[in-house]
Specification:
This protein is α/β, with parallel strands linked by helices. Among the domains are: 156 residues, Collagenase (Catalytic Domain) (3-Layer(aba) Sandwich), CATH 3.40.390; 63 residues. It is 51% helix and 14% strand. The protein has 13 helices and 5 strands. A hairpin with a 2-residue loop joins β4 and β5. α4 runs parallel beside α8, α11 packs antiparallel against α12 and α11 runs parallel beside α13. It starts with a helix and ends in a 6-residue tail after the last helix. The structure holds zinc ion (ZN) (2 copies). The site of one zinc ion has 9 residues, from α10.
């Protein structure tokens, strides 16, 4: 009698577990666009880091506020992840730079996004579109509320020139509060750094596993790109309790997205002679649009409109209709809602 019961259990248990796994998944955002899902994926992913078609070098500069040191595990996480997702011949430089006195942070005002530009004097590199180098600035700074990290563009004005710097924030003080006996702050710092890096890579852009109401986050609770809310925490509670493990890598679906995007970009580059130039133009358009919004937010309309015009000129030149439409929408938004005096 015992054997059949065991066999039955062996057959049923995996089914139950598979069922549970599905039940723990977050709800997916309904997809309403007419654009093929594959194009939406490509639009969101970052070909400048993930291929060598436009840029062949990634520089990651890490600065931190005194008392908010980056853990070795976080730096390891950034290095390992980039090595894993980038082409083998991509040059990757990850380095620790300055410890910034706490007094400098305290002298600035506002939240971390408002204070970050005040730290720009510590930034050794500036992004240079067309130089073949991509820059990621990682800042370990005091956090806000319950946030553990954040990914955003930070505008840096230097010598009358505005640069938009891809910035990943990690908040060691908030992480320390979350850390428990069996999961040290190093592991959480690593998970947060890899998560924020995932945003910079363009995860999660595939509509099939994007969480409802939470763009850029994965529906798979075992993926580091999932938002660790109650359901995910429950799903991850056992491994966390027994092995001190939390998700700190991209899940199957996010990995598949990285591979699909890389394959498609290379296929297109091989068959379409204008493709790489268009990618380069997209890079420039993205930078100009971010600059336009930055100026717009500061009500410097002349500079904002100038950037929009330049970006639209590029989009026209490369017959990128989707980009042109998006730029027109952005410009209209600025004019209507921010009382831009217009051109
Ligand atoms: Zn996130
Ligand atoms: Zn995922």
């Amino acid at each position: 009698m015992v054997l059949p019961v065991r066999i039955a259990a062996a057959l049923v248990l995996p089914l139950v577990l598979v069922g549970c796994r599905a039940a723990f998944r977050y709800p997916v955002e309904p997809y309403t666009s007419e654009r093929p899902k594959q194009e939406t994926l490509l639009k969101g992913m970052n070909p400048f880091i993930l291929t060598n078609l436009v840029s062949t070098r990634v520089v990651v500069e890490i600065d931190w506020i005194e008392g908010h040191e980056p853990h070795a595990k976080a730096i390891e996480g950034i290095k390992e992840t980039l090595r894993e997702v980038c082409p083998p011949d991509k040059e990757i430089v990850v380095y620790l730079d300055d410890e910034i006195p706490l007094s400098e942070w305290e002298a600035a005002s506002g939240d971390f996004l408002e204070r970050a530009p005040a730290l720009a004097a510590h930034l050794d590199h500036l992004p240079d579109v067309g130089s073949g180098e991509e820059l990621i600035w990682v800042l370990f700074v005091p956090g806000r509320d319950e946030l553990l990290g954040w990914a955003s563009q930070v505008g840096v004005e230097r010598d009358d020139r505005l640069s938009m710097v891809s910035t990943l924030f990690v908040f060691p003080d908030r992480i320390k509060k979350q850390a428990q006996l069996w999961i040290g702050p190093g592991r959480i710092q690593r998970a947060v750094a890899v998560h924020e890096l995932g945003h910079e890579l363009g995860l999660v852009s595939h509509p099939d596993h994007q969480e409802r109401g939470n763009p850029g986050h994965c529906t798979e609770p075992h993926c580091v790109m999932a938002h660790q809310r109650l359901r995910g925490q429950f799903y991850n509670a056992l491994p966390a309790l027994f092995a001190g493990k939390i998700p700190d890598a991209y899940g199957d679906k996010c990995r598949a997205d990285l591979e699909t995007a890389q394959r498609l970009w290379h296929e297109r580059a091989a068959t379409d002679p204008g493709f790489v130039d268009r990618l380069g133009a997209q890079r420039e358009i993205r930078e100009l649009r971010e600059q336009a919004c930055w100026y717009g937010e500061r009500q410097r309309w002349g500079e904002a409109i100038d950037r929009f015009k330049h970006a639209r000129g590029l989009a026209e030149q490369f017959r990128d209709v989707a980009e042109e439409t998006a730029l027109e929408d952005d410009e209209r938004f600025l004019k209507l809602y921010r009382f831009c005096p217009g051109d």
